[in-house]
Amino acid sequence: AQSVAQPEDQVNVAEGNPLTVKCTYSVSGNPYLFWYVQYPNRGLQFLLKYITGDNLVKGSYGFEAEFNKSQTSFHLKKPSALVSDSALYFCAVRDRRDDKIIFGKGTRLHILP
Amino acid sequence: DTEVTQTPKHLVMGMTNKKSLKCEQHMGHRAMYWYKQKAKKPPELMFVYSYEKLSINESVPSRFSPECPNSSLLNLHLHALQPEDSALYLCASSQDPKAGERSNEQFFGPGTRLTVL
Questions:
Q1: How far apart are CA B90 and CA B109, in angstroms?
Q2: Which residues of chain B lie closer than 8 angstroms to A105, CB-CB?
Q3: pLDDT in tens, B47-83
Q4: Smallest Cβ distance to B105: which of A41, A49, A104?
């Protein structure tokens, strides 16, 4: 069965510092991997995805993620955090043979001014 | 138009009421989804429609009844709900869901916050 783990409930980062939000996955075969962000009382917004090819994926708002097959990880990164990046971040995985998408439990990112 | 709209934004209903949630998109997407999200939790998949046909029902109780009248609209009919059904209900859509093209990201609506008294 496929699963996604986000080991940190909350990550605190000072504004201007680099940030990392961790995600590991378990799925048979080659997955599609996604990051979404959710602001309070809003739906989820797509940030980026990994399909195939280059392991470093660039997305919206300066975010990027690195796919590491050997470690089954897809960590979200940003070189310089903004206060406006404070939100709830979800990693998600989709098996290429399935219509279902599985979300991690979410990581609350708090950027300190 | 790159938006998924949901109505109403808020809904309060009693356990004997019948109500419906509506979702609409005009991006030509052929896959549409209903999710339930409790506070501080990830979205939980309820239903998936692919080309207006129900393709996944995640063992959702029959008091939730989905309907996809056409490729742009998705409804969720509610009847005899329980207080524990109170949650944010999210609709999403994605492009052509043909086999081998499941790499498409989902576009989410803002949700309907449902309270069952």
A1: 6
A2: 41-42
A3: 999 999 999 899 999 999 999 999 999 999 999 999 9
A4: A49
